[in-house]
Design a protein that fits this description.
Largest sheet: 6 strands, mixed
Distance between the termini: 45 Å
Strand content: 15-25%
CATH superfamily of the largest domain: Ribonuclease Z/Hydroxyacylglutathione hydrolase-like
Radius of gyration: 24 Å
Number of strands: 24
CATH topology of the largest domain: Metallo-beta-lactamase, Chain A
Shape: globular
Strand order of the largest sheet: 1-2-3-4-5-6
Number of helices: 16
CATH class of the largest domain: Alpha Beta
């Protein structure tokens, strides 16, 4: 038996490849399926099953394409209703894979079809659970993504989740290994650990949601407290996972159209495409196409695209470092953004060489901002980190305008007076700067190094917890 976790950092997502005696199961695969097929071929094995823990909201799974390419059966738990052929498992139904067994444990709560898969080894001993979004390390799945008007509330789902954890998962032995679908950084939970594998016994000790003396009412309150609105692209991803999607090879073929600066400009004007610049923030600050949006490929790329580009059907034109165009299109497709129609051939240098109009982002160091604030206590400073980061610690002079909701804060920024923006390290504030400039707000200054650098200055900070209207 071989179990391999295939972890994708930018999505904070874990897929799993399990092999026994020449038979393979893949759990929650990414949309690009060639790595699983190639791995099975290298093992001289056949992919027999594709297990889906639920209809994912934060990424597009590769189940449809992988089944088409391999003939493997797609397995969902009870209550699933996909429009394609799939086996809808019954609670406790078992699937043989070589010398091992995978049992479906229906664990509703995150969604009503959510299912945990229990792996029994060659001796029939409970070895591991693949818990999807039911149980994370340090947390559990948020219960507000699958609620339906007049049918289920987030409190209803949290109640189901409480029962699932205590009836199906907590009775398992402490040495059972927990393989979750996500880790720290995912929007599917609140307080996930940075580790991606743990024992159930340790989770019973450290995970607040698994406290033995916790009542259902306490659980519901803690799980639902402080939930921020989910990213706008989540419903579309659920729809794609339930109904199917274009083959990723077709998406890549459509997107990898190399356009000259003139053709790129014409396409932007004709289609109204978002110009998405995925270079690093320093390069974007030095020069970029006016009104383009920066979301760097080397940061939390796909989730920020999903959170900030509202329409997944929106045409996209790419500005990328040469050689990274296909990678970018692939990563966009992971969150359902299949509308890339081309990229700038030769990158931004070609745009400059063609004499096209450019823009830049003014920036200062943390020390320079310190001098400005000390000279004028009323200097407007805006912190675009998440509300929890701001409440934990922030500059006394700063106002909270989280990047996730930047479009709701446009009226907060001065019309003509120069103002300063920062995040934790510089990535998110550059995204914010690009969005503000695309909205015609140019009197901004980015603070290099973000809060990490600002903490090294003599500017006063506070950990006062501000009331947040964004919490539910």
């Amino acid at each position: 038996m071989n179990i391999e976790q295939i972890y994708t950092g930018c999505l904070a997502q874990g897929a799993y490849y399990i092999e026994s005696q020449g038979e393979v199961a893949v759990i929650d695969p990414l949309r690009e399926v060639k790595p699983y097929i190639e791995r099975a071929e290298a093992d001289n094995a056949k992919i027999k099953y594709i297990f889906e823990t639920h209809f994912h909201a934060d990424f597009v799974s590769g189940h449809v394409t992988l089944a088409k390419e391999t003939g493997a059966s797609i397995i969902y738990g009870p209550n699933a209703n996909p429009t394609f052929d799939a086996v809808i498992a019954k609670d406790n139904q078992e699937f043989k894979l070589g010398a091992i067994t995978i049992k479906a444990l229906h664990t509703p709560g995150h969604t009503m079809e959510s299912t945990t898969y229990l792996l029994l080894d060659e001796n029939g001993k409970n070895h591991a659970i693949f818990s999807g979004d039911t149980l994370f390390l340090g947390d559990v799945g948020r219960p507000d993504l699958a609620q339906k008007a007049k049918e289920l509330t987030q409190e209803d789902l949290a109640g189901y989740l409480y029962d699932s954890l205590r009836e199906k998962i907590m009775p398992l032995a402490d040495d059972v290994i927990v393989y979750p679908a996500h880790g720290a950084g995912s929007a599917c939970g609140k307080n996930m650990m940075k580790e991606t594998v743990d024992t159930l016994g340790n989770q019973k000790k450290v995970n607040y949601a698994l406290r033995a003396d916790m009542t259902k009412e306490e659980f519901i309150k803690e799980v639902t407290d402080g939930l921020l609105p989910p990213p706008s692209y989540f419903p579309l991803n659920v729809k794609m996972n339930k109904e199917g999607y274009d083959d990723i090879d077709d998406v890549i073929e459509r997107g990898t159209q190399a356009l000259t600066p003139d053709a790129f400009e014409t396409a932007a004007n004709k289609t109204g495409a978002v110009i998405l610049d995925v270079r690093n923030q320093a390069s974007f600050a030095e020069g970029h196409i006016p009104r383009s949006i920066f979301i760097g490929i080397d940061g939390g790329f796909a989730p920020w695209v999903g959170a900030l580009i509202a329409d997944t059907a929106q045409p996209i034109l790419l500005v990328a470092e040469e050689g990274r165009e296909e990678e970018t299109i692939t990563r966009l497709s992971r969150v359902g953004f299949d509308g890339t129609i081309g990229y700038l051939k030769g990158g931004f240098k070609a745009w400059e060489a063609a004499g096209k109009q450019t823009d830049y982002v003014k920036s200062v160091t943390a020390t320079e901002l310190e001098a400005t604030v000390l000279a004028d206590k009323n200097t407007p400073v805006f912190d675009v980190r998440k509300p929890g980061e701001f409440e934990a610690e922030h500059l006394e002079v700063a106002s909270s305008t989280p990047l996730d909701f930047i479009n709701k804060h446009l009226s907060d920024f001065p019309d003509t007076e120069e103002f300063y923006i920062h995040c934790a390290g510089g990535y998110r504030s550059m995204i914010a700067a690009s969005i503000l400039k695309s909205r015609g707000i140019h009197n901004l200054v980015d603070v290099q190094g973000g809060y990490k650098a600002l903490k090294e200055t003599n500017l006063k900070t506070t950990n006062f917890v501000c009331p947040s209207t964004l919490k539910k």
